[in-house]
Task: inverse folding
């Protein structure tokens, strides 16, 4: 789940109302979150992924105004009209068909805003953006460019520009091979001869979606006016993403301006912050929640969650849903928010009808002992998805596709097979925590599916640090063997995902059960990591004593 880290004083400033740190820490999780950690004035909150509007401190402050009874109801923003126009060329329709844009002026680029905006952008890319496949967001300094803008598709070898964070000009094809973001997201465009591009009146390049922005429109601490583009393959998702970004900027004092998108003979204005409407049944709400609330009480609960609501009749309520609430799909979603607004502490509890005592499954004591060893070595335990994809499991670590269990009807490319190892999952976790300080060291004791389609328990760890090396990795593996009372044999091993000569195999009773070493720079780049990384994985099943 996404973790949002913010400064208490910055939050209070955004909130516009006084609240003690103690009260904030006690109340905030009741919106639907878990308190991750508190260090001095730095607070980290883990929110459920169905609330992308809470993926920034600005969104949390907006929700808190209503939830803490400071400003009940739907938050309204003053939106002005601009003369900015973006035209969509028909050439882009088969590649990445949808685009929405906005202009936000009078923004003060504080350190807090820059950090929050970057974090929000990445969380939206990972969440509703499905790792940029459905949604990709570009945030630009508006000053160096001039509308009208054009969104089109071009031959990737015919156009070159200086991408963000680089100083040399590259063709679009070269960006996919040389730039970190290009390498990471090239697969999104691999099936297309032409690639998307956003240019201004003078053919200055703003963005190469979903890969990278041009350096011309790089946002600096002196930027005051921002142009935002959101492209993708899902029309609803790109609109939600745009609404979340622009309203977050408005919470910082930015002025939202609409823009016009001209697409195949039609024109539409974005962002569209008009609320949508849904009807909520009083009887159905009480049936689901086991309560006896009247319409006025339910309306109060809804307003605490940032909705506007009016009584249509004694049995039905008209609800206005904010344009940034991507999670409200059905009446049951409104009922969930009624329960949060009502307060979980106000629901009556009951004792279980059957009394049972839980205990660990047979054979799990050994794996629990391994967990304690890893924690004793200073590692943090993580639990990752058993569903993965061929790109992460094989391509990114240099392996050829092996036998694996494929999912017949996957919801997306990210979830197309069952994992065959733990290391790719750990590297993805490290990628998602690049904003945290080093060193980072994590482990997992989890289930994978082997080449014979059998469930196996594996133990793996990964550590990223500027000084991480093979010698350290070897000492950690030896410590695991020593503390678990098992004699492991070490031998040379070649693995395409590791540096040659800095990788070793571990064997137990003559059977090879795992490997460890320094990750190859290409593997590190494939997972968009930026520092040396060591990793280890073994089949823990073979070590378990009968």
Result:
């Amino acid at each position: 789940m996404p973790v949002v880290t913010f400064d208490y004083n910055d939050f209070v400033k955004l909130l516009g109302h006084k609240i003690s740190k103690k009260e904030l820490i006690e109340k905030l999780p009741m919106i639907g979150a878990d308190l991750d950690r508190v260090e001095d004035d730095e607070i980290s909150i883990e929110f459920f992924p169905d609330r992308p509007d809470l993926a920034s401190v600005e969104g949390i402050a907006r929700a808190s105004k209503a939830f803490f009874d400071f400003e009940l109801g739907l938050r309204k923003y003053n939106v002005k009209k601009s003369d900015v126009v973006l035209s969509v060329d028909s050439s882009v329709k088969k590649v990445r068909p949808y685009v929405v844009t906005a202009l936000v002026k009078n923004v003060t680029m504080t350190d807090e805003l820059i950090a929050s905006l970057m974090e929000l952008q990445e969380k939206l890319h990972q969440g509703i953006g499905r790792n940029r496949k459905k949604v990709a967001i570009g945030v630009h300094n508006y000053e160096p460019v001039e509308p009208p803008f054009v969104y089109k598709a071009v031959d990737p070898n015919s156009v070159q520009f200086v991408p963000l964070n680089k100083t040399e000009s590259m063709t679009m094809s070269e960006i996919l091979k040389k730039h970190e973001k290009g390498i990471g997201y090239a697969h999104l465009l691999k099936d297309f001869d032409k690639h998307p591009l956003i240019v201004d009146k003078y053919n200055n390049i703003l963005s190469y979606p979903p890969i990278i922005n041009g350096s011309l429109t790089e946002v600096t601490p002196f930027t005051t006016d921002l142009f935002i583009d959101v492209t993708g393959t899902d029309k609803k998702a790109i609109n939600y993403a745009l609404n979340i970004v622009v309203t977050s900027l408005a919470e910082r004092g930015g002025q939202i301006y609409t823009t016009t998108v001209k697409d195949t003979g039609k024109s539409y204005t974005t962002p569209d912050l008009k609320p949508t409407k849904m009807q909520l049944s009083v009887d159905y709400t009480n049936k689901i929640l086991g309560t006896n609330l009247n319409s006025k009480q339910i309306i109060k609960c809804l307003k605490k969650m940032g909705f506007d609501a009016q009584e249509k009749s004694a049995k039905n309520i008209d609800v206005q849903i904010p344009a940034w609430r991507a999670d409200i799909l059905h009446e049951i979603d409104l009922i969930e928010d009624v329960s949060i607004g009502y307060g979980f502490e106000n629901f009556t509890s009951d004792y279980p009808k059957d009394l049972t005592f839980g205990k660990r499954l047979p054979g799990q004591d050994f794996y629990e002992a391994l967990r304690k060893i890893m924690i004793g070595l200073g590692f943090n335990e993580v639990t990752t998805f058993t569903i993965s994809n061929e790109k992460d499991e094989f391509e990114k670590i240099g392996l050829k596709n092996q036998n694996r269990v494929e999912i017949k009807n996957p919801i997306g490319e990210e979830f197309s097979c069952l994992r065959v190892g733990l290391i790719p999952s750990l590297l993805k976790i490290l990628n998602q925590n690049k904003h945290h300080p080093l060193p980072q060291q994590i482990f997992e004791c989890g289930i994978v599916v082997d080449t014979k389609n059998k469930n196996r328990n594996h133990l793996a760890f990964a550590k990223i640090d500027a000084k991480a090396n093979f010698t350290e990795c070897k000492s950690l593996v030896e410590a695991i063997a020593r503390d678990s009372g098992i004699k492991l044999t070490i031998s040379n091993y070649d693995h395409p995902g590791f540096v040659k000569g800095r990788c070793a195999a571990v064997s137990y009773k003559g059977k090879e059960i795992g490997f460890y070493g320094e990750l190859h720079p290409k593997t590190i780049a494939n997972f968009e990591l930026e520092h040396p990384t060591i990793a280890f994985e073994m089949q823990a099943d073979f070590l378990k004593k009968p």
Observations:
- The mean pLDDT is 92.
